[in-house]
Structure formats: C-alpha cells, structure tokens
Amino acid sequence: MLEQTANPSPKNPPLTPKGDNMEKESKIYIAGHHGLVGSALKRKLESKGYTNLIFHTHRELDLIN
Question: Of 31, 41, 45, 59, which sits with the fewest C-beta atoms within 10 Å of its C-beta?
Fold first, then answer.
C-alpha cells in the first residue's frame, strides 16, 4: 500500500493506494524481470490477473542503438 503525502503539490503529487484502474489486458513491459524488483513486479501483476505481460532478456533485446 502506498502512502499519501501530507502536502501534495505538482512536484510531490499524492499517490493512489490502489493501482487497479488499469485494464487487465493492457500490454505491460517489465524490464529486469529476472532481478529482485522486476520479478516481484511480475509476480504481483500475474497474481492480480494481468494477462498481457511482456518481458525479454537483455540478450533478446538490442537496446544499444
């Protein structure tokens, strides 16, 4: 659960405690899905029913250019 800021401003907007406003079929690219944060994010999204998750290894993607 995210905490909301006491004094929201344009530099420090309030956070919404729930992220369930995104379509379950939306394409979501997860960078670093083998790492600590990426793998936790992948598990969480899968457990919430998101079905169109996209993840590739560094070897599969050429992001150098």
Answer: 59
21, with CB counted inside 10 A (0-12, 13-18, 19+), is: exposed
Nearest to 25 by CA among 48, 50, 54: 50
Average pLDDT (36-54) is 92
Q: Given the structure tokens 């909301």, which residue do they identify?
A: 4
Neighbours of 28 (CB within 10 A): 16
pTM: 0.59
Under 8 Å between Cβ of 52 and 26: yes
Write down the domain spans for the chain: 26-65
